Amino acid sequence: MEIDQGLLDALQNAKHVLVFTGAGVSAESGIPTFRDALVGLWARFDPAVLATREAFRRDPTFVWGWYEWRRMQVCNAQPNLAHRAIAELSAIVPKLTLVTQNVDDLHERAGSIEVIHLHGSLNKPRCFACARFAIDPGCVKTH
């Protein structure tokens, strides 16, 4: 991949580069977005039924099943050129912070380190009662 020399110079001279990504970066890997009118997840599923505390309390088996379906989509997806380019960028800038709205782990699998997930991660569900990761044995024993 060829990078414009002016951009490359600016990046190399930067003290800190912030990269912010959203659903579009993972859509290329086959991960459905939420809001796309034709193929978005909310075009097929009601967020009030799946993406609230009340929905989880009302039908946890259904909601866990939906999130497991999404998690399996991510497990079967591969990082794309954008994920890899961002990971490679961290090697040429002094400091890179990567913030994503995505709940997948494609940035990490492409080689990015210290990814900030604004909306959490499908691979790290949290307990409603104590906010610890749900796979934490201490959480399972007490809740």
UniProtKB/TrEMBL annotation:
PROSITE patterns: SIRTUIN. It comes from the Bacteria. Its EC number is 2.3.1.286. GO terms for molecular function: histone deacetylase activity, NAD-dependent; hydrolase activity; NAD+ binding. Residues 1-143 form the Deacetylase sirtuin-type domain. The keyword Transferase applies. Pfam families: SIR2 (PF02146). Keywords: Hydrolase, NAD, Transferase. The keyword Hydrolase applies. Signal peptide: none annotated. This is protein acetyllysine N-acetyltransferase. It comes from Pseudomonas fluorescens.
